[in-house]
TrEMBL record:
This is Phosphatidylglycerophosphatase A. One of its GO terms (molecular function) is phosphatidylglycerophosphatase activity. Residues 20-150 form the YutG/PgpA domain. It holds the Pfam family PgpA. The lineage of its organism: Bacteria, Bacillati, Bacillota, Bacilli, Bacillales. GO terms for biological process: lipid metabolic process. InterPro entries: PgpA-like_sf (IPR036681), Put_PGPase (IPR026038), YutG/PgpA (IPR007686). It comes from Paenibacillus algicola.
Protein backbone atom coordinates (compact mmCIF):
# COMPACT_ATOMS: atom_id res chain seq x y z
CA UNK A 1 0.00 0.00 0.00
CA UNK A 2 1.39 3.36 -0.91
CA UNK A 3 0.60 6.94 -1.60
CA UNK A 4 1.23 6.28 -5.30
CA UNK A 5 -1.42 3.57 -5.30
CA UNK A 6 -3.87 5.91 -3.54
CA UNK A 7 -3.20 8.63 -6.13
CA UNK A 8 -3.60 6.11 -8.94
CA UNK A 9 -6.93 4.88 -7.57
CA UNK A 10 -8.16 8.46 -7.23
CA UNK A 11 -7.15 9.23 -10.82
CA UNK A 12 -8.91 6.10 -12.03
CA UNK A 13 -12.08 7.51 -10.45
CA UNK A 14 -11.57 10.97 -11.97
CA UNK A 15 -9.96 12.76 -9.03
CA UNK A 16 -6.50 14.34 -9.17
CA UNK A 17 -4.38 15.61 -6.32
CA UNK A 18 -4.54 19.05 -7.93
CA UNK A 19 -8.36 18.97 -7.92
CA UNK A 20 -8.33 18.27 -4.18
CA UNK A 21 -5.64 20.94 -3.71
CA UNK A 22 -7.92 23.48 -5.45
CA UNK A 23 -10.50 22.85 -2.72
CA UNK A 24 -7.86 23.19 0.01
CA UNK A 25 -6.73 26.46 -1.55
CA UNK A 26 -10.30 27.80 -1.51
CA UNK A 27 -10.64 26.87 2.16
CA UNK A 28 -7.34 28.38 3.32
CA UNK A 29 -6.47 31.30 1.02
CA UNK A 30 -8.46 33.81 3.08
CA UNK A 31 -6.35 32.98 6.13
CA UNK A 32 -3.02 32.57 4.31
CA UNK A 33 -2.70 35.17 1.53
CA UNK A 34 0.72 33.82 0.47
CA UNK A 35 -0.57 30.25 0.13
CA UNK A 36 0.29 28.52 -3.14
CA UNK A 37 -1.41 25.70 -4.95
CA UNK A 38 1.86 23.76 -4.67
CA UNK A 39 1.69 24.01 -0.86
CA UNK A 40 -1.89 22.73 -1.00
CA UNK A 41 -0.82 19.80 -3.20
CA UNK A 42 1.96 18.99 -0.71
CA UNK A 43 -0.57 19.01 2.10
CA UNK A 44 -2.92 16.69 0.17
CA UNK A 45 -0.01 14.32 -0.48
CA UNK A 46 0.92 14.40 3.22
CA UNK A 47 -2.63 13.31 4.07
CA UNK A 48 -2.56 10.63 1.38
CA UNK A 49 0.76 9.44 2.80
CA UNK A 50 -0.93 8.26 5.97
CA UNK A 51 -1.66 4.55 5.89
CA UNK A 52 -5.00 4.89 7.69
CA UNK A 53 -6.13 7.35 5.00
CA UNK A 54 -5.02 4.97 2.27
CA UNK A 55 -6.91 2.07 3.82
CA UNK A 56 -10.04 4.14 4.20
CA UNK A 57 -9.78 5.33 0.61
CA UNK A 58 -9.25 1.78 -0.68
CA UNK A 59 -12.30 0.60 1.27
CA UNK A 60 -14.59 3.37 0.05
CA UNK A 61 -13.52 3.08 -3.57
CA UNK A 62 -13.96 -0.71 -3.45
CA UNK A 63 -17.50 -0.34 -2.10
CA UNK A 64 -18.34 2.22 -4.81
CA UNK A 65 -17.00 -0.13 -7.50
CA UNK A 66 -18.89 -3.12 -6.11
CA UNK A 67 -22.08 -1.04 -6.13
CA UNK A 68 -21.44 -0.04 -9.77
CA UNK A 69 -21.05 -3.71 -10.67
CA UNK A 70 -24.20 -4.54 -8.70
CA UNK A 71 -22.28 -7.01 -6.53
CA UNK A 72 -23.43 -5.87 -3.10
CA UNK A 73 -26.02 -7.85 -1.15
CA UNK A 74 -29.43 -6.35 -0.49
CA UNK A 75 -30.40 -4.07 1.07
CA UNK A 76 -26.93 -2.50 0.76
CA UNK A 77 -27.11 -2.46 -3.05
CA UNK A 78 -30.39 -0.51 -3.01
CA UNK A 79 -29.07 1.88 -0.37
CA UNK A 80 -26.01 2.60 -2.51
CA UNK A 81 -28.11 2.89 -5.69
CA UNK A 82 -30.22 5.58 -4.04
CA UNK A 83 -27.31 7.24 -2.19
CA UNK A 84 -29.68 7.03 0.76
CA UNK A 85 -29.41 10.27 2.79
CA UNK A 86 -29.70 8.48 6.13
CA UNK A 87 -27.03 5.87 5.31
CA UNK A 88 -24.24 7.92 6.92
CA UNK A 89 -21.55 5.23 6.69
CA UNK A 90 -19.86 7.19 3.89
CA UNK A 91 -19.62 10.28 6.10
CA UNK A 92 -18.45 8.15 9.02
CA UNK A 93 -15.49 6.83 7.02
CA UNK A 94 -14.66 10.34 5.80
CA UNK A 95 -14.75 11.73 9.35
CA UNK A 96 -11.97 9.30 10.24
CA UNK A 97 -9.83 10.96 7.59
CA UNK A 98 -10.94 14.43 8.61
CA UNK A 99 -9.89 13.99 12.22
CA UNK A 100 -6.22 13.16 11.63
CA UNK A 101 -5.27 16.84 12.00
CA UNK A 102 -7.67 17.75 14.77
CA UNK A 103 -11.18 19.00 15.16
CA UNK A 104 -10.77 22.01 12.89
CA UNK A 105 -11.17 19.57 10.00
CA UNK A 106 -14.65 18.67 11.17
CA UNK A 107 -16.04 22.13 10.42
CA UNK A 108 -14.34 22.17 7.02
CA UNK A 109 -15.75 18.73 6.24
CA UNK A 110 -19.26 19.83 7.21
CA UNK A 111 -18.95 22.85 4.95
CA UNK A 112 -17.67 20.75 2.03
CA UNK A 113 -20.33 18.09 2.55
CA UNK A 114 -23.05 20.73 2.26
CA UNK A 115 -21.57 23.01 -0.41
CA UNK A 116 -19.96 20.28 -2.56
CA UNK A 117 -17.42 22.52 -4.26
CA UNK A 118 -15.02 21.58 -7.04
CA UNK A 119 -14.50 17.92 -7.82
CA UNK A 120 -16.79 16.98 -4.91
CA UNK A 121 -19.68 18.51 -6.85
CA UNK A 122 -18.59 16.71 -10.02
CA UNK A 123 -18.55 13.35 -8.22
CA UNK A 124 -21.88 13.98 -6.54
CA UNK A 125 -23.58 14.85 -9.84
CA UNK A 126 -22.09 11.96 -11.85
CA UNK A 127 -24.97 9.59 -12.68
CA UNK A 128 -22.84 7.16 -14.72
CA UNK A 129 -20.71 6.01 -11.78
CA UNK A 130 -21.24 5.39 -8.08
CA UNK A 131 -19.35 7.77 -5.79
CA UNK A 132 -21.31 7.35 -2.56
CA UNK A 133 -18.08 7.03 -0.60
CA UNK A 134 -15.62 8.88 -2.82
CA UNK A 135 -17.26 12.31 -2.73
CA UNK A 136 -17.16 12.25 1.08
CA UNK A 137 -13.64 10.83 1.19
CA UNK A 138 -12.41 13.60 -1.11
CA UNK A 139 -14.08 16.13 1.20
CA UNK A 140 -12.39 14.43 4.17
CA UNK A 141 -8.98 14.52 2.49
CA UNK A 142 -9.43 18.20 1.56
CA UNK A 143 -10.58 19.06 5.09
CA UNK A 144 -7.61 17.23 6.63
CA UNK A 145 -5.14 18.88 4.23
CA UNK A 146 -6.69 22.26 5.03
CA UNK A 147 -6.39 21.57 8.77
CA UNK A 148 -2.78 20.56 8.31
CA UNK A 149 -2.04 23.93 6.70
CA UNK A 150 -3.81 25.75 9.54
CA UNK A 151 -1.89 23.79 12.19
CA UNK A 152 1.45 24.41 10.48
CA UNK A 153 0.94 28.17 10.20
CA UNK A 154 4.13 29.79 11.55
CA UNK A 155 2.15 32.97 12.20
CA UNK A 156 -0.33 31.29 14.53
CA UNK A 157 -0.55 32.73 18.01
CA UNK A 158 1.52 31.04 20.67
CA UNK A 159 0.47 31.10 24.30
CA UNK A 160 2.51 30.53 27.41
CA UNK A 161 1.54 30.33 31.04
CA UNK A 162 2.39 33.15 33.35
CA UNK A 163 4.30 32.50 36.52
CA UNK A 164 3.60 34.62 39.58
Amino acid sequence: MSMELAESMLLERGVSVSAIADIVFQLQQKYHPDLTLAACENSVRAVLGKREVQYTLFTGIALDKLAESRLLPEPLQSIMDQDEPLYGVDETLALGVTSIYGMIGLTSFGYLDKEKIGVIHTLNEDRKSVHVFLDDLVAGIAAAASSRIAHNDPGAASYTSSTD
